[in-house]
């Protein structure tokens, strides 16, 4: 059997317990994402959901967080203006090795989640 994948639905990152409001400010005010309502059955678990392009970004609450290479990567337009905006908001950035056909860098949310942004050239 070959699984027929249709599209990416969502990406989940984790935040520590008690940090929902700080996450909400970062993701709505700094990144400009639109928060969307979680289904009632999932609300007791904490966390929040956001609309990001044609998928969703889910923030789940998790006690034990470890550093990892795991990360989502999003294609964007205006990468350099985004870089300037993140620097102005004191967001930690990391330069990434060059890859053919794209300019890219990563940034870290207040909880250490790495998010890569790339612009095709």
Descriptors:
121 residues, alpha/beta, 2,3-Dihydroxybiphenyl 1,2-Dioxygenase, domain 1, four-stranded mixed sheet, 8 strands
Can you describe what's shown?
- The chain has 121 residues and is of the alpha/beta class.
- It has one domain: 2,3-Dihydroxybiphenyl 1,2-Dioxygenase, domain 1 (Roll), CATH 3.10.180.
- It is 17% helix and 34% strand.
- The chain has helices at residues 20-30, 79-88; strands spanning 10-15, 34-36, 48-52, 55-61, 73-75, 93-95, 102-108, 114-120.
- The strands form two sheets. The protein has a four-stranded mixed sheet with strand order 1-4-3-2, covered by helices on one side. The chain has a four-stranded mixed sheet with strand order 5-8-7-6, with helices on one face.
- A hairpin with a 2-residue loop joins strand 3 and strand 4.
- The longest helix is centred in the first third of the chain and has 11 residues, at 20-30.
- The protein is globular.
- The protein starts with 9 loop residues before the first strand and ends with a strand.
CATH homologous superfamily - what is it?
Answer: 2,3-Dihydroxybiphenyl 1,2-Dioxygenase, domain 1
Task: Encode the helix/strand succession as letters.
Answer: EHEEEEHEEE
Total helical elements = 2
Largest beta-sheet characterization: 4 strands, mixed
Helix content: 10-25%
User: Termini separation (Å)?
Assistant: 37 Å
Number of domains: 1
Strand tally is 8
Q: Detail the poorly predicted runs.
A: none
Query: Structural class of the secondary elements?
Result: alpha/beta
The CATH top-level class label: Alpha Beta
- The radius of gyration over CA amounts to 15 Å
Could you say what the CATH topology is called? 2,3-Dihydroxybiphenyl 1,2-Dioxygenase, domain 1
Shape: globular
User: Order of strands across the biggest sheet?
Assistant: 1-4-3-2
